[in-house]
Amino acid sequence: MKRLVLVFALAFLAGCGGSSSGGASRVDLTLDFFPNADHAGIYAAQASGAFKRHGLDVQIHAPSDPSVPLRLLDAGKTDLAISYEPEVLRAHDKGLHVRAVAALVRVPLTSVISLPAAGIRSPADLRGKQVGTAGIDYQTAYVHAIAPGAHVRNVGFNLVPALVSGKVDAVLGAYWNYEAIQLRQKGRNPRVIRMETAGVPTYDELVVAARDDADPSVVRRFLAALADGTHALARDPAAGVNALLKANPDLDPKLQRASVAATLPYFLPPKGKPYGYMDPAAWRRFTTFMHSRGLLKLSSPDGAMTDELLP
Q1: Residue 97 and residue 161: Cα distance in Å, rounded?
Q2: pTM for this one?
Q3: Greatest CA separation for the chain
Q4: Angle at 186 (CA atoms; ends 167, 136), nearest 5 degrees
Q5: Who contacts 21 (Cβ-Cβ below 8 Å, separation ≥6)?
């Protein structure tokens, strides 16, 4: 999950999946958080006209709370949502009629971040240390998998302030492509342990989710346009960042440029795979991990994801 509590007014989502003027299909897309570098491909698709070329009128909304997009999707109040693999698995586990249809960022961004004074260079160095999390139960499971001897402390979404103030020795929940870069730009020399290298199975940090009964044609056109936008971003990152900054003028341009540059390889699919590809075997391994720690009742991701709608 994202890290800071910022409140946005959620625009009233009416006419989901309907038709807009000019014959384009309206698609309401709810982000997982405020517009930021992780969404650069989406804004590049919007700015480059990719959605329009695929016959879509995409309306992008920021949520009032990062926990609501999948509930809105299940209730039919938005057509598509950006969420996280763990959250989609839990929603499916609870009976929500939602599933992941594409990977937006295909590796974990959540990481363990510390400052040099804590002396943490490897997972073994976390033994006996205070690790701050946002209080999400699967973050605690990540800590226990990475460093069984660490002490977990709930610091809410104030992860970076807790780290910088010395309340904790490290945090898990901040992103290596965002907070770590921000700390580096401020001269704090953060040390990063990426989750998939330290005992947690890899997973798709951000995914595009749709209802089980979503119109396949609309989803395919959306993903094809998103693929076009992401490839446009790869060709000209500055244009994509400019579109993002226009959508959210409060963002720090320097941080967004650096974050997009760091994340760009993971917006794109693995070699030889279509845009948005999700590895079913990796989903099974991560589902098994979540199930083994009592975080899921189901032990299989069947029904929670599909690659059948990829462009």
Answers
A1: 37
A2: 0.91
A3: 62
A4: 40
A5: none
Name the CA radius of gyration of the chain, rounded: 19
Structural domain of 192 = 110-197
CATH number, domain containing residue 187: 3.40.190.10
| Beta pairing partners, 81 | 30, 209
- Residue 216 counted as domain residue: yes
Rounded to whole angstroms, the Cα distance separating 226 from 244 reads 14
Sign, Cα dihedral of 186, 188, 194, 195 = negative
pLDDT in tens, 204-260: 999 999 999 999 999 999 999 999 999 999 999 999 999 999 999 999 999 999 999
Asked if 98 and 210 sit in the same domain, the reply is yes
The values of phi and psi at residue 118, to 5°, are: -75, -15
Q: Are strands 170-175 and 110-114 parallel, antiparallel or unpaired?
A: antiparallel
183 and 58 in a common domain: no
Secondary structure element (H or E) that encloses residue 174, with its range: strand 170-175
Convert the pLDDT of each residue in 134-165 to its tens digit.
Answer: 999 999 999 999 999 999 999 998 999 999 99
